[in-house]
Design goal:
Elements: H1 25-30, H2 35-54, H3 133-144, E1 149-151, E2 155-156, E3 163-164, E4 167-172, E5 178-186, H4 187-209, E6 213-220, E7 241-249, E8 254-256, H5 263-276, E9 282-284, E10 296-299, E11 309-310
Protein backbone atom coordinates (compact mmCIF):
# COMPACT_ATOMS: atom_id res chain seq x y z
CA UNK A 1 0.00 0.00 0.00
CA UNK A 2 1.45 3.23 -1.11
CA UNK A 3 2.26 5.80 1.38
CA UNK A 4 -0.39 8.47 2.16
CA UNK A 5 1.80 11.35 1.21
CA UNK A 6 1.72 10.44 -2.45
CA UNK A 7 -1.05 12.03 -4.44
CA UNK A 8 -3.04 10.59 -7.19
CA UNK A 9 -1.72 10.94 -10.71
CA UNK A 10 -2.56 14.31 -12.15
CA UNK A 11 -5.31 14.57 -14.77
CA UNK A 12 -4.24 15.39 -18.25
CA UNK A 13 -4.28 19.16 -18.96
CA UNK A 14 -6.86 20.56 -21.40
CA UNK A 15 -5.14 22.29 -24.29
CA UNK A 16 -5.79 26.00 -24.47
CA UNK A 17 -8.54 27.16 -26.76
CA UNK A 18 -7.48 29.35 -29.61
CA UNK A 19 -9.26 32.68 -29.26
CA UNK A 20 -11.81 33.56 -31.94
CA UNK A 21 -11.19 36.89 -33.65
CA UNK A 22 -13.55 39.55 -32.42
CA UNK A 23 -14.37 37.76 -29.20
CA UNK A 24 -14.11 39.41 -25.89
CA UNK A 25 -12.10 38.08 -22.93
CA UNK A 26 -15.17 36.95 -21.14
CA UNK A 27 -16.03 34.81 -24.11
CA UNK A 28 -12.77 33.08 -23.77
CA UNK A 29 -13.43 32.46 -20.09
CA UNK A 30 -16.76 30.90 -20.95
CA UNK A 31 -15.08 28.37 -23.11
CA UNK A 32 -16.06 26.70 -26.29
CA UNK A 33 -19.76 26.70 -25.55
CA UNK A 34 -19.79 30.34 -26.22
CA UNK A 35 -18.31 30.04 -29.66
CA UNK A 36 -21.67 29.22 -31.17
CA UNK A 37 -23.16 32.34 -29.65
CA UNK A 38 -20.28 34.39 -30.99
CA UNK A 39 -20.83 33.02 -34.45
CA UNK A 40 -24.50 33.81 -34.30
CA UNK A 41 -23.74 37.32 -33.04
CA UNK A 42 -21.40 37.92 -35.95
CA UNK A 43 -24.02 36.73 -38.36
CA UNK A 44 -26.51 39.19 -36.88
CA UNK A 45 -23.95 42.02 -37.23
CA UNK A 46 -23.54 41.17 -40.89
CA UNK A 47 -27.31 41.29 -41.36
CA UNK A 48 -27.39 44.73 -39.67
CA UNK A 49 -24.69 46.04 -41.96
CA UNK A 50 -26.56 44.73 -44.98
CA UNK A 51 -29.72 46.52 -43.80
CA UNK A 52 -27.79 49.76 -43.23
CA UNK A 53 -26.43 49.63 -46.76
CA UNK A 54 -29.93 49.26 -48.16
CA UNK A 55 -31.16 52.33 -46.16
CA UNK A 56 -32.02 55.43 -48.25
CA UNK A 57 -29.08 57.32 -46.79
CA UNK A 58 -26.85 55.13 -48.91
CA UNK A 59 -28.61 56.23 -52.14
CA UNK A 60 -26.51 58.14 -54.65
CA UNK A 61 -29.05 61.01 -54.82
CA UNK A 62 -28.08 64.17 -52.91
CA UNK A 63 -29.61 64.54 -49.46
CA UNK A 64 -32.66 66.72 -49.11
CA UNK A 65 -32.85 69.80 -47.02
CA UNK A 66 -33.75 69.42 -43.44
CA UNK A 67 -37.16 70.98 -43.69
CA UNK A 68 -38.26 69.41 -46.96
CA UNK A 69 -40.94 66.79 -46.99
CA UNK A 70 -40.61 63.49 -48.72
CA UNK A 71 -41.92 63.47 -52.26
CA UNK A 72 -43.30 60.44 -54.06
CA UNK A 73 -41.01 58.72 -56.44
CA UNK A 74 -41.24 59.37 -60.14
CA UNK A 75 -43.00 56.06 -60.70
CA UNK A 76 -46.07 57.16 -58.69
CA UNK A 77 -48.54 59.69 -60.21
CA UNK A 78 -49.30 62.88 -58.23
CA UNK A 79 -52.53 62.86 -56.37
CA UNK A 80 -55.26 65.24 -57.58
CA UNK A 81 -56.39 67.57 -54.80
CA UNK A 82 -60.01 67.32 -53.77
CA UNK A 83 -60.58 71.07 -54.27
CA UNK A 84 -58.92 72.99 -57.11
CA UNK A 85 -57.47 76.20 -55.66
CA UNK A 86 -59.12 79.37 -57.00
CA UNK A 87 -56.70 82.12 -58.19
CA UNK A 88 -56.90 85.30 -56.13
CA UNK A 89 -59.31 87.88 -57.49
CA UNK A 90 -57.92 91.06 -59.03
CA UNK A 91 -58.43 93.91 -56.61
CA UNK A 92 -61.14 96.27 -57.74
CA UNK A 93 -59.90 99.57 -59.05
CA UNK A 94 -60.77 102.40 -56.80
CA UNK A 95 -62.92 105.03 -58.41
CA UNK A 96 -61.58 108.59 -58.06
CA UNK A 97 -63.33 110.55 -55.43
CA UNK A 98 -65.49 113.36 -56.82
CA UNK A 99 -64.16 116.86 -56.13
CA UNK A 100 -65.73 118.75 -53.31
CA UNK A 101 -66.99 121.37 -55.73
CA UNK A 102 -68.20 120.28 -59.16
CA UNK A 103 -66.53 122.22 -62.01
CA UNK A 104 -68.81 124.81 -63.51
CA UNK A 105 -69.15 125.19 -67.30
CA UNK A 106 -67.66 128.39 -68.69
CA UNK A 107 -70.06 131.26 -68.81
CA UNK A 108 -71.46 132.03 -72.21
CA UNK A 109 -70.24 135.42 -73.32
CA UNK A 110 -72.83 138.12 -73.67
CA UNK A 111 -73.91 138.91 -77.24
CA UNK A 112 -71.55 141.42 -78.67
CA UNK A 113 -69.07 140.86 -75.85
CA UNK A 114 -66.21 138.40 -76.12
CA UNK A 115 -67.64 136.47 -79.07
CA UNK A 116 -65.47 136.58 -82.15
CA UNK A 117 -66.81 138.96 -84.77
CA UNK A 118 -67.42 138.02 -88.36
CA UNK A 119 -64.54 139.17 -90.55
CA UNK A 120 -64.76 142.58 -92.21
CA UNK A 121 -62.02 143.80 -94.58
CA UNK A 122 -62.21 147.27 -93.09
CA UNK A 123 -60.94 145.89 -89.77
CA UNK A 124 -57.44 145.62 -91.28
CA UNK A 125 -57.26 149.24 -92.38
CA UNK A 126 -54.43 151.18 -90.73
CA UNK A 127 -53.21 154.73 -91.29
CA UNK A 128 -50.35 155.28 -93.72
CA UNK A 129 -47.36 157.45 -93.00
CA UNK A 130 -48.91 160.14 -95.17
CA UNK A 131 -52.65 160.89 -95.45
CA UNK A 132 -54.08 159.67 -98.77
CA UNK A 133 -55.18 162.23 -101.34
CA UNK A 134 -58.89 161.33 -101.05
CA UNK A 135 -58.82 162.06 -97.31
CA UNK A 136 -57.18 165.42 -97.91
CA UNK A 137 -59.74 166.29 -100.61
CA UNK A 138 -62.64 165.35 -98.28
CA UNK A 139 -61.35 167.74 -95.61
CA UNK A 140 -61.08 170.52 -98.17
CA UNK A 141 -64.74 170.09 -99.12
CA UNK A 142 -65.82 170.20 -95.45
CA UNK A 143 -64.01 173.51 -94.98
CA UNK A 144 -65.77 174.89 -98.05
CA UNK A 145 -69.14 174.06 -96.45
CA UNK A 146 -68.17 175.90 -93.30
CA UNK A 147 -67.90 172.69 -91.25
CA UNK A 148 -65.71 172.90 -88.18
CA UNK A 149 -63.84 169.73 -87.19
CA UNK A 150 -60.75 168.45 -85.45
CA UNK A 151 -58.36 165.73 -86.48
CA UNK A 152 -58.30 162.70 -84.23
CA UNK A 153 -55.83 159.87 -83.80
CA UNK A 154 -56.54 156.60 -85.57
CA UNK A 155 -58.91 154.15 -83.89
CA UNK A 156 -58.13 150.44 -84.08
CA UNK A 157 -59.14 147.45 -81.97
CA UNK A 158 -57.64 144.24 -83.33
CA UNK A 159 -59.60 142.00 -80.93
CA UNK A 160 -63.04 143.30 -81.90
CA UNK A 161 -62.20 144.62 -85.37
CA UNK A 162 -63.09 148.29 -85.06
CA UNK A 163 -61.03 150.65 -87.20
CA UNK A 164 -60.98 154.29 -88.36
CA UNK A 165 -57.62 155.13 -89.95
CA UNK A 166 -58.36 158.89 -90.39
CA UNK A 167 -61.13 160.00 -88.00
CA UNK A 168 -62.31 163.55 -87.41
CA UNK A 169 -64.51 165.06 -84.72
CA UNK A 170 -67.30 167.26 -86.05
CA UNK A 171 -67.94 170.50 -84.14
CA UNK A 172 -70.52 171.89 -86.57
CA UNK A 173 -72.44 170.73 -89.68
CA UNK A 174 -72.09 174.01 -91.51
CA UNK A 175 -71.93 177.78 -90.96
CA UNK A 176 -75.25 177.93 -89.09
CA UNK A 177 -75.87 174.31 -87.98
CA UNK A 178 -74.27 172.90 -84.89
CA UNK A 179 -74.00 169.35 -83.56
CA UNK A 180 -74.00 168.30 -79.91
CA UNK A 181 -72.03 166.62 -78.59
CA UNK A 182 -69.13 166.49 -81.03
CA UNK A 183 -69.26 163.40 -83.24
CA UNK A 184 -66.29 161.20 -84.17
CA UNK A 185 -66.75 159.99 -87.75
CA UNK A 186 -64.77 159.10 -90.82
CA UNK A 187 -64.54 161.97 -93.29
CA UNK A 188 -66.94 160.61 -95.98
CA UNK A 189 -69.69 160.12 -93.35
CA UNK A 190 -69.08 163.57 -91.91
CA UNK A 191 -69.35 165.11 -95.39
CA UNK A 192 -72.58 163.22 -96.17
CA UNK A 193 -74.13 164.37 -92.87
CA UNK A 194 -73.15 168.02 -93.47
CA UNK A 195 -74.60 168.06 -96.99
CA UNK A 196 -77.82 166.38 -95.86
CA UNK A 197 -78.45 168.81 -92.99
CA UNK A 198 -77.76 171.86 -95.14
CA UNK A 199 -79.58 170.75 -98.31
CA UNK A 200 -82.52 168.63 -96.98
CA UNK A 201 -83.22 169.13 -93.26
CA UNK A 202 -82.82 172.91 -93.35
CA UNK A 203 -85.34 173.19 -96.19
CA UNK A 204 -87.82 170.80 -94.51
CA UNK A 205 -87.68 172.73 -91.22
CA UNK A 206 -88.61 175.97 -93.00
CA UNK A 207 -91.35 174.32 -95.06
CA UNK A 208 -92.97 172.21 -92.34
CA UNK A 209 -92.24 174.13 -89.12
CA UNK A 210 -91.55 177.67 -90.26
CA UNK A 211 -88.11 177.90 -88.57
CA UNK A 212 -84.48 177.32 -89.37
CA UNK A 213 -82.50 174.32 -88.23
CA UNK A 214 -80.16 175.43 -85.47
CA UNK A 215 -78.60 172.23 -84.12
CA UNK A 216 -78.65 168.44 -84.30
CA UNK A 217 -78.48 166.36 -81.10
CA UNK A 218 -76.68 163.13 -81.86
CA UNK A 219 -77.06 159.90 -79.81
CA UNK A 220 -74.15 157.92 -81.20
CA UNK A 221 -71.27 158.24 -83.65
CA UNK A 222 -68.13 156.09 -83.42
CA UNK A 223 -68.71 153.15 -81.02
CA UNK A 224 -66.59 149.98 -81.11
CA UNK A 225 -69.33 147.32 -81.03
CA UNK A 226 -71.25 144.81 -83.16
CA UNK A 227 -74.83 145.17 -84.26
CA UNK A 228 -77.21 144.36 -81.45
CA UNK A 229 -77.75 140.61 -81.11
CA UNK A 230 -75.31 139.68 -83.90
CA UNK A 231 -71.63 138.98 -84.51
CA UNK A 232 -71.47 141.44 -87.39
CA UNK A 233 -69.70 144.69 -86.70
CA UNK A 234 -71.85 147.76 -86.62
CA UNK A 235 -71.17 150.63 -89.00
CA UNK A 236 -70.55 152.64 -85.85
CA UNK A 237 -67.41 150.51 -85.38
CA UNK A 238 -65.93 152.21 -88.46
CA UNK A 239 -67.19 155.75 -87.76
CA UNK A 240 -69.56 155.25 -90.68
CA UNK A 241 -72.88 155.91 -88.90
CA UNK A 242 -74.66 158.71 -87.07
CA UNK A 243 -77.72 158.44 -84.78
CA UNK A 244 -79.90 161.55 -84.43
CA UNK A 245 -82.08 161.88 -81.33
CA UNK A 246 -83.60 165.32 -81.97
CA UNK A 247 -83.47 168.61 -83.92
CA UNK A 248 -83.36 172.03 -82.32
CA UNK A 249 -84.92 174.91 -84.30
CA UNK A 250 -84.14 178.62 -84.33
CA UNK A 251 -87.31 179.31 -82.32
CA UNK A 252 -85.99 176.99 -79.54
CA UNK A 253 -88.38 174.17 -80.31
CA UNK A 254 -87.02 170.68 -79.96
CA UNK A 255 -88.31 168.02 -82.33
CA UNK A 256 -87.62 164.59 -80.81
CA UNK A 257 -87.50 161.37 -82.77
CA UNK A 258 -90.02 158.94 -81.31
CA UNK A 259 -92.91 156.57 -82.03
CA UNK A 260 -95.70 159.15 -81.51
CA UNK A 261 -94.56 162.77 -82.09
CA UNK A 262 -97.04 165.69 -82.49
CA UNK A 263 -98.66 165.96 -85.89
CA UNK A 264 -96.50 168.77 -87.27
CA UNK A 265 -93.32 167.21 -85.89
CA UNK A 266 -94.35 163.85 -87.34
CA UNK A 267 -94.75 165.35 -90.81
CA UNK A 268 -91.35 166.99 -90.59
CA UNK A 269 -89.68 163.80 -89.35
CA UNK A 270 -91.35 161.73 -92.07
CA UNK A 271 -90.09 164.09 -94.77
CA UNK A 272 -86.53 163.93 -93.39
CA UNK A 273 -86.62 160.14 -93.09
CA UNK A 274 -87.78 159.56 -96.64
CA UNK A 275 -85.28 162.03 -98.08
CA UNK A 276 -82.42 160.31 -96.23
CA UNK A 277 -82.91 157.08 -98.19
CA UNK A 278 -80.52 157.64 -101.08
CA UNK A 279 -77.82 159.91 -99.69
CA UNK A 280 -77.43 157.23 -96.97
CA UNK A 281 -77.39 153.51 -97.65
CA UNK A 282 -79.16 152.54 -94.40
CA UNK A 283 -81.99 154.46 -92.74
CA UNK A 284 -83.72 153.12 -89.62
CA UNK A 285 -86.04 154.78 -87.13
CA UNK A 286 -89.17 154.27 -85.00
CA UNK A 287 -91.13 151.23 -86.15
CA UNK A 288 -88.12 149.48 -87.72
CA UNK A 289 -87.19 147.64 -84.50
CA UNK A 290 -87.09 148.37 -80.75
CA UNK A 291 -83.44 149.43 -80.92
CA UNK A 292 -84.28 152.39 -83.15
CA UNK A 293 -87.48 153.54 -81.45
CA UNK A 294 -85.98 156.80 -80.19
CA UNK A 295 -83.49 157.85 -82.84
CA UNK A 296 -82.88 158.03 -86.57
CA UNK A 297 -79.99 155.87 -87.73
CA UNK A 298 -78.07 156.96 -90.87
CA UNK A 299 -75.01 155.18 -92.31
CA UNK A 300 -73.00 154.63 -95.49
CA UNK A 301 -72.69 150.84 -95.33
CA UNK A 302 -71.48 149.63 -98.73
CA UNK A 303 -74.14 147.48 -100.41
CA UNK A 304 -74.25 145.49 -103.61
CA UNK A 305 -74.97 147.56 -106.71
CA UNK A 306 -75.25 150.70 -104.56
CA UNK A 307 -78.55 149.59 -103.05
CA UNK A 308 -80.19 150.94 -99.89
CA UNK A 309 -81.97 149.55 -96.85
CA UNK A 310 -84.59 151.90 -95.44
CA UNK A 311 -87.25 151.10 -92.78
Amino acid sequence: MPPASQSAAPAPETPPTTPVPGSRPQDMENGADKSGQDKSRLDSNDDFLNQEKSHPKWDTRPPRSKGSQSEPRAESEPETPDVVPTPPQKPAELEPEPPETAPQPPEKPEPGGEEKMLPDPRSAEMPADQMPAEETACRDRLKALGVEFEEHKAEHDAQIGCSIPYPIILKTLGKSIGISPGAELNCPMAEAAAHFMHDVVQAAAKAELGADLKSVNQASAFVCRPRNGTRKLSEHAFGNALDIASFTLSDSRNVEVGPAPPEKDAKFLDTVRKAACGPFKTVLGPGADPDHALHLHLDLEPRRHGGTFCQ
